[in-house]
């Protein structure tokens, strides 16, 4: 017998110790024409803002570049501590919700609801949407970068590019690709999923703040929250797409599509960028039209299968034993140093090397925290969409532990192989001196015979393509869902086309005019307003869970279904 069907007490509705949750949040949508089923108050301003960013970058590139640089320097230096302490707080909140027994048992849906997707498909989708492209680019790029420069090297305790520098390089790599990223995604996703699947509120960002602000989220405040989320999503996905496009073009060059793909500095040419975006965004738009249960689900399963095959190759013919050693030591160092490293904010007074430490943290840790926050509305919304029916504990451990561990394994096996090839002298600098978008292919070229390297590089190109399509179509679908007041099935085709084209123009204009740095700077600026929304979401989900536990204690319903069947009386726990 559940608390919602127990014997009634003598208390009257006027004596309720706590009110039932809000199970209705009205978001006005248009009922005809071009914006039929969409919130014009969200869709139109979001489209205008993104369009202005595109036109600014294309028609006023010098002004845009100078302004972005100044804004980036100001935001990064002024808000570095904010990003560091915010992400540390999100990690603490996530694990508290998962570990506490009573909150961990709460289900994202009705009491006996089963998960919509299998565990494999669920993990594949959240991993592909969340981090797949960046993982391919940085699996070699980040360990090698920290192998050459990290705080221990800056302080002079270890020598750059030495065997002693490997351990610290992995400690920092795991810090950036572990719980900081996935707890940010998990908390945003949980705040949305909890009120959507349990209380029947629209699947949109503003709904997550209803436990804090109630019906106020129906009006202007809610519109602003969703607009900020849409813009942050487009800019956050643009960084990932930019990285992926550069590596995709580098891969096409490696497998023989011609020297016209790359410029003298090793970056993709404008023609190659346009060609890649037409192919990738076009395919992702078609996939988005098919919805989550078809195109995105199957592409995600393909992504995971190809990723495991590539990982197995590195484990078997690469530095498998060395990679396992790095994995074990790296995880130990990461866990032991997590509290300190998550809360450390370098200052300029650290024995004469402070300025270098501050700049390193701004370039790496603070950039990553901003990236994860900008990516969070997209990934969080997507994870919320596919996580119905799971308990909070299952959700938290699935979203934080499994993808973090996969990232760690990938970085250790692939990056460890690249580092060992450099330490042994086999690479002769071919990997470490390559552009970051080409380092994975350079590792394969050193590790394998030319014929096999060509085939495997082709596999990486295919994997990149499917990851890029999955990320882009997921983002397009999520943006349309926010604009459609949480309706992910009624998306109109022309709006999907608009956001696909807009995403392609943001990535293309920034890459051609300012390179990946221009996209990064724009993303960091876009992430700042949403970081305050993320903090409010953290407070909101904690309040929602605590109040629901109090409701369960007093026999007050906590789900939309329970409220429908409730007779207004208080029921004691049996």
From TrEMBL:
The protein's UniProt keywords, in alphabetical order, are:
Cell membrane, Membrane, Transmembrane, Transmembrane helix, Transport
Q: Where are the transmembrane segments?
A: 44-62, 82-100, 120-138, 174-196, 224-249, 269-292, 304-324, 366-384, 396-419, 452-482, 494-516, 522-546
Location in the cell reads: Cell membrane
Q: What is its main location?
A: membrane
Query: How does this protein sit in the membrane?
Result: Multi-pass membrane protein
Hydrolase is among the record's keywords? no
The residues forming a coiled coil are: none
Query: InterPro entries under this entry?
Result: BCCT_transptr
Domain of life, per lineage: Bacteria
Which PANTHER family does the UniProt record give? HIGH-AFFINITY CHOLINE TRANSPORT PROTEIN, HIGH-AFFINITY CHOLINE TRANSPORT PROTEIN-RELATED
Report the family membership.
Belongs to the BCCT transporter (TC 2.A.15) family.
Specify the protein name.
Answer: BCCT family transporter
């Amino acid at each position: 017998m559940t608390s919602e069907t127990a014997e009634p007490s003598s208390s009257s509705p006027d004596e309720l110790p706590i009110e039932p949750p809000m199970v209705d949040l009205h978001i006005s949508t248009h009922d005809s024409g071009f914006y039929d089923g969409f919130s014009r108050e969200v869709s139109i301003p979001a489209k205008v803002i993104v369009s202005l960013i595109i036109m600014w970058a294309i028609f006023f590139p010098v002004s845009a570049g100078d302004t972005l640089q100044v804004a980036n320097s100001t935001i990064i230096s002024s808000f570095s501590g904010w990003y560091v302490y915010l992400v540390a707080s999100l990690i603490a909140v996530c694990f508290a919700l998962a570990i506490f027994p009573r909150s961990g048992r709460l289900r994202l849906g009705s009491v006996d609801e089963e998960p919509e997707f299998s565990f494999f498909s669920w993990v594949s989708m959240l991993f592909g949407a969340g981090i797949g492209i960046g993982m391919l680019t940085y699996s070699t790029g980040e360990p090698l970068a920290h192998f050459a420069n990290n705080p221990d090297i800056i302080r002079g305790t270890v020598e750059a590019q030495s065997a002693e520098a490997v351990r610290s390089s992995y400690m920092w790599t795991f810090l950036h690709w572990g719980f900081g990223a996935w707890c940010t995604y998990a908390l945003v996703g949980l705040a949305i999923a909890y009120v959507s699947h349990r209380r029947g509120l629209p699947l949109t960002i503003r709904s997550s703040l209803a436990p804090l602000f109630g019906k106020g989220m129906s009006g202007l405040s809610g519109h602003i929250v969703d607009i900020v989320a849409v813009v942050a999503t487009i800019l956050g996905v643009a960084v990932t797409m930019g990285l992926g496009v550069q590596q995709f073009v580098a891969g096409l060059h490696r497998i023989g599509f011609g020297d016209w793909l790359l410029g003298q500095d090793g970056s993709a040419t404008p023609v190659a960028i346009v060609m890649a975006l037409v192919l990738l965004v076009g395919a992702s738009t078609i996939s988005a039209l098919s919805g989550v249960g078809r195109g995105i689900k199957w592409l995600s399963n393909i992504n995971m299968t190809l990723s495991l095959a590539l990982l197995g190759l590195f484990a078997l013919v690469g530095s498998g034993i060395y990679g396992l050693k790095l994995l074990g030591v790296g995880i130990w160092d990461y866990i032991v140093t997590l509290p300190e490293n998550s809360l450390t904010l370098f200052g300029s007074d650290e024995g004469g090397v402070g300025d270098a430490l501050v700049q390193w943290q701004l370039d790496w840790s603070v950039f990553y925290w901003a990236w994860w926050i900008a990516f969070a509305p997209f990934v969080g919304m997507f994870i919320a969409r596919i996580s119905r029916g799971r308990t909070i504990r299952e959700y938290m451990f699935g979203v934080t532990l499994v993808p973090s561990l996969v990232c760690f394994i990938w970085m250790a096996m692939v990056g460890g192989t690249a580092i060992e090839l450099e330490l042994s002298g086999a690479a002769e600098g071919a990997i470490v001196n390559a552009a970051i978008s080409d380092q994975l292919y350079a590792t394969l070229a050193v590790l394998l015979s030319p014929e096999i390297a060509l085939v495997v590089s082709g596999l990486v190109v295919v994997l990149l393509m499917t990851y890029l399509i999955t990320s882009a179509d997921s983002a397009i679908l999520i943006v349309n869902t926010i604009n459609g007041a949480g309706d992910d099935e009624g998306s109109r085709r022309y709006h999907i086309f608009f956001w696909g084209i807009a995403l392609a123009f943001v990535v293309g204009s920034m890459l051609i005019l300012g390179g990946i740095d221009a996209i990064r700077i724009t993303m960091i600026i876009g992430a700042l307003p949403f970081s305050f929304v993320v903090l409010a979401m953290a407070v909101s989900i904690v309040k929602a869970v605590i109040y629901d536990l109090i409701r369960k204690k007093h026999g007050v319903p906590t789900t939309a279904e329970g409220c429908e069947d409730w007779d207004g009386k208080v029921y004691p726990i049996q």
